Amino acid sequence: MEVIISECHDAACNLALEEYLLGKEGSDPFLFIWQNRKTVVIGRNQNAYYECDVRYAAINNIDIVRRMSGGGAVYHDLGNINYTVYYKDNIDYKKITIEYVVDVLNYLGINAYANGRNDIEIKGRKVSGLAYYMGQGYSYTHGCLLVNTDIDCMETVLNPDVEKIKSKGISSVKSRVINLSDINRNLTVDEVKKALVKKAYLLSKTHSEDEKIDVLIIEPEYLDNVELKGFVQKYKSSEWIYEKKIETKFCMKRRFEWGSCNLNIESDCQTIKSAKILSDSLCTDVFDKIEMQLKNRPLNMLSIRNVFTEIKEYYGIQDEEVVILKDISKMISEEMPIHE
């Protein structure tokens, strides 16, 4: 039984390695253990803007990545352990993986149990959730295990302002969670990792305690491997992370000295499809210009800022309209939860 452990904490690199390993030679099951620094990982068919507070993530140096498997958004940090079980046999490895993780936790003295086909709980609260991906070579079942994750940060970043964002993407199901350290405060991430390795024989074809376990440590430098570069570029690209074409509407409302402003922007998470401003201001032309210039722009903050700069530079606008441009630009910068 082979166990591969990544020493890299970059989520994009670890997801790249996870996908790369789908093409590994052989037919025996194997285990991949990895950790990420502060990261939001969204499911394959989710909308990043709807699943997490993109602005909070940027301010607090929290990465955002999209994985290959389906399911909901999760938060990772170094108090969390990720495990991926690879297999080729046509047997229920989702069930085998859950039984394996439950056995690991029981071995550590924690009374954990499966709830349904995808969750592991302690005292009615979720400690691990699973997702899966079917590849052409290997397939995998993977999940995260909360040891001493920052729950406060998790709850904050995974709770965007849904009043400002309306999406047709697949949303996450919010669950009450628990850390293993809430049950045993002395339990460490390293101890849990060692238990995952020790019990890895349960994933083998023999399920025998006599199964030899070979551990391969992957250093961060290995991820510069030319064979992995394309995978890494994919997971780091904004096209993969943000530009899943899902209909999304951003709504902002504010009152200024010159009047009210109700701005609605519709997009597909890649391009602004339309913008509409409702206002009781006596000025009118400036709003038409903003709506016209926002349409078909890329959905990122730099592109939107450029709209207001271009209007000021290329149109003959009045002083009061300059104030309106400045105020609306500031409102968008402060309220619209999109990436740079």
The share of residues in extended strands comes to 25-35%
Number of domains: 2
CA-atom Rg in angstroms: 24 Å
Strand line-up across the major sheet: 7-8-9-10-6-2-1-12
How does the helix and strand content classify structurally? alpha+beta
Specify the overall morphology. Answer: elongated
What is the β-strand count? Answer: 15
CATH fold node name of the largest domain: BirA Bifunctional Protein, domain 2
**N- to C-terminal distance:** 44 Å
Low-confidence stretches: none
CATH class of the largest domain, please? Alpha Beta
Largest sheet: 8 strands, mixed
Order of helix and strand elements from N to C terminus: EHEEHHEEEHEEEEHEHEHHEEEHHH
The CATH architecture name of the largest domain reads 2-Layer Sandwich
List keywords for this structure.
single chain, 340 residues, alpha+beta, BirA Bifunctional Protein, domain 2, Enolase-like, domain 1, 2 domains, 8-stranded mixed β-sheet, 4-stranded antiparallel β-sheet, 15 strands, 32% helix, 25% strand
Question: Care to describe what's here?
Answer:
This protein is of the alpha+beta class. The chain has helices at 11-20, 48-51, 54-59, 93-107, 151-157, 189-198, 226-236, 238-241, 285-294, 301-314, 319-335; strands at 2-6, 30-34, 39-42, 63-66, 74-76, 80-87, 113-115, 119-122, 125-133, 139-146, 165-167, 214-218, 248-256, 259-267, 272-278. Helix content is 32%, strand content 25%. The protein has two domains: 2-241, Bira Bifunctional Protein, Domain 2 (BirA Bifunctional Protein, domain 2); 248-335, Enolase-like, domain 1 (2-Layer Sandwich), CATH 3.30.390.50. The model has no long low-confidence stretch (mean pLDDT 89).
